[in-house]
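task queued by scheduler; priority normal; single chain, no ligands, no partner chains; default sampling; output format set to structure tokens
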Amino acid sequence: MSNKNPITEYEYINLIKEINHANYMYYVKNNPIMADYEYDSKFRKLQEIENNNPAIKVQQSPTSRVGSTPSKDFPPVQHMIQMTSLANAFNKKEIISWYKKIQASLETENIEIVCELKIDGLAISLLYLDGILARAGTRGNGITGEDITPNIKTIKTIPLTLMIDNPPSEIELRGEVFFPKKEFMKLNNERIKTGLEPYASTRNSASGSLRQLDSSETAKRPLDAFFYSFGYITDSSSINSINTQHESLICIGKLGGKINPWTKKFTDIYQVFEAIDDANRIRSKLNYEIDGVVIKVNDLNYQKILGITGRNPRWAIAYKFPAETTITTLKKIHINVGRTGALTPWAELEPVIINGVTIKKATLHNSDEIKRKDFREGDNVIVQRAGDVIPQIVSVVNRNKNMNLKKFTFPKFCPDCKSEIVKLKNDATSRCLNTKCPTQFERLLHHYASKPAMNIETLGERLAKSLSRSGLIQNLSDLYVLEKKITELEKLENMGTKKIKNLIHSINESKNRPFYRLLFALGIPNVGIETSRWISKELKNFDEIISASLNKFTNIDGIGNVTANIIFEWFKVEENINLINKLKILGVKSESENLTSTILNNLVFVFSGRLENITRGEAHNLIEKFGGKSSNSVTQNTNYLVIGDNPGSKLNNARNLNIPILEEQDFLKLFEINK
């Protein structure tokens, strides 16, 4: 071990156990045992130990939850015991029929039944070797799944180590990963707000999140998981002495796995119907989607006797809730233009109540969906809440030739700026690619000024709307001549002298942001911050990008055909070329710099007070150039506070949190710079 941070291996492992136990109590048991400050201090200490001694890092370290570098694909996982799927029942008659069959097979009438909620997510299998999570896989076809180990480790309710002293040498836990409903709605509200199509269901979002090639992207999603059974267990394990499904759930909980609290045990099959009614009654109040109730034979020996047929166990069946639907009128089809220029259609409905919620709108997804289902204004339509969250139109009912309803034609030109709509091959979304489009411009301006993009402080959503609607800014390049319009700025609501001064200062600083951040700030559809990095590494300036062929974009690692086409088309729009040329003339950095070093290795810096030898903008760019990050506020995640003259309250905050404090000269010495 390095002498930089002397610590014994015993102390290191104990620190990991302590943090993992705190995670378990917080995320699984909802019973915090450690103050946030204490937890963050211990976590930071663990990070420092592993940064100074990378060779000692072990698989069960909680630092592995943050996500690793992207992989190219998912290796296959061979399940040691087949992962089955469940046969479905849709009414009481089918449940009773199933029960009578198992009575006949077992030649007994006294069969204990366990009911569990059917979580609407993605089935997973976790293999632990000597108590340490070694591999995680999806169900796949039941025999072979996908290895998603790095992504699974990002979920805080997943135990990285089992909470027993002498775990089996090999043990497999099986469960379901899901996307919590409240967080799902927040995510969709953000997508709708920016003009993106909302995700259809929590299940698809959970599945898509777990299949991210970059596990750091999975780490950004608030996924959760419940466990419901064991898979393979070594023969020598004491866990093999468990006799029932109910005992299995209790044991999984003791091992550290999160189990669903709603579990019911019966000896009378007719009591199952009461459980189903109860589950249906509470489902709208749960923070996760359920689509039914799983009914299982409790006795594990009976389960072995009954076995499986095909891919379904004979000892279990799933009762599926019917989707609640109703009929209403599609009053009007609207088109929403988002920040990226995506045209998202939605239906205005005659208000109707489903599951206690008044539904007035429904998503129509895209032009292909409207065409395929032939939705028309004035139609009577069947509406359901997909996954109890997103209202959707299922189909048209009772239309006849005498109704004379006009076939809906998706616009060929943008409803706002009248630019021609572009719909690329293999892309379901129709788009307006004109950055001067008024409706998308307000959102684009806010995005351009956002922290991950050009980081223009004080230019939030409200000011972006005000600047756009007042006519002061009609093009992104207008930002950089705003200092000539101080009199007009003063007339805007809540714009005092100090705020205007700070705004102009921050706008000027933004000229020196790294090139990839400018690419991201332009709001090119499908181009996130990582895609911008990939482009800037291959194509060093706008001239190279504009002259690049479609194949050049397609060949950039990480960029698919659809995104490549969008980028290629975007840089062929005259208005966009004019914008780029104006930004270059106004002094906005328009070419890449190679990363000088990674000596700061994702360290987070915060500044307070006036700097003498370097501007804030230069300091932020310098940090990023050397692999670090900047933030505006002191938190537990801050690594250093850099102070100049007259530092404010951030200094006291840093002292209270024991954050290291650097004076300006000490900060500059990190880069061996004398200015």
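post-processing summary
- The first strand starts at residue 76 and ends at 78.
- The two ends are 38 Å apart (CA to CA).
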